Amino acid sequence: MGMRELLVIGRVAIRVPAFVPSYTQAPSSFSSPAPVQLQSPAPQGGSYSAFIQPEEPEPEVVRQRQEHRAEKIAGRDEESKKEREETIARAGRGIDKFYEEYNAKKERAIRENKENEAEYLSTLTDSLSSDTTWSRICDLVDLENSQFKMVARAGTNLTRYREVPLKLRKEGDKALGAAGY
């Protein structure tokens, strides 16, 4: 290699070779003409002189501005880092709170369901052992002291449908199917 020149672009200095080495084409096993040599023209001494500048010291104002800018960027980065950590911590607390509330609600629902189930089973066994089938039907349908809940066509009289279960209930154990199952 020959002498190298210094190429300065902006604030970056690069050393470049004074000439580019030649490359030869490798001969192949096939018959071919003589190898071709490629060579770039070497730059002359004055061709890069416009880009080569001696390094000048930066003015004090520029240096102070760059330092001030770097401090502001570092401050913003630090503030952003703190804000991110606070957000992550707040999200973690929110997730913990959610699962605490969720588990408490789930435990309460399980407890209430067990209590309701026990109450339902006790009333079911009590009603099955004490009443007749027709009294249980009247309790479920609630025929007494209320308007009949079924929607009927205009002009249709549904009093007979209410009277049949009530009559069978009054008959007690003597009614048809009152013994239950």
From TrEMBL:
<comment type="function">
    <text>Clathrin is the major protein of the polyhedral coat of coated pits and vesicles.</text>
</comment>
<feature type="region of interest" description="Disordered">
    <location>
        <begin position="25"/>
        <end position="87"/>
    </location>
</feature>
<feature type="compositionally biased region" description="Polar residues">
    <location>
        <begin position="25"/>
        <end position="42"/>
    </location>
</feature>
<dbReference type="GO" id="GO:0030130">
    <property type="term" value="C:clathrin coat of trans-Golgi network vesicle"/>
</dbReference>
<dbReference type="InterPro" id="IPR000996">
    <property type="entry name" value="Clathrin_L-chain"/>
</dbReference>
<feature type="compositionally biased region" description="Basic and acidic residues">
    <location>
        <begin position="60"/>
        <end position="87"/>
    </location>
</feature>
<keyword id="KW-0968">Cytoplasmic vesicle</keyword>
<dbReference type="GO" id="GO:0006886">
    <property type="term" value="P:intracellular protein transport"/>
</dbReference>
<dbReference type="GO" id="GO:0005198">
    <property type="term" value="F:structural molecule activity"/>
</dbReference>
<comment type="similarity">
    <text>Belongs to the clathrin light chain family.</text>
</comment>
<dbReference type="Pfam" id="PF01086">
    <property type="entry name" value="Clathrin_lg_ch"/>
</dbReference>
<dbReference type="GO" id="GO:0072583">
    <property type="term" value="P:clathrin-dependent endocytosis"/>
</dbReference>
<keyword id="KW-0472">Membrane</keyword>
<keyword id="KW-0168">Coated pit</keyword>
<protein>
    <recommendedName>
        <fullName>Clathrin light chain</fullName>
    </recommendedName>
</protein>
<dbReference type="GO" id="GO:0032050">
    <property type="term" value="F:clathrin heavy chain binding"/>
</dbReference>
<dbReference type="GO" id="GO:0030132">
    <property type="term" value="C:clathrin coat of coated pit"/>
</dbReference>
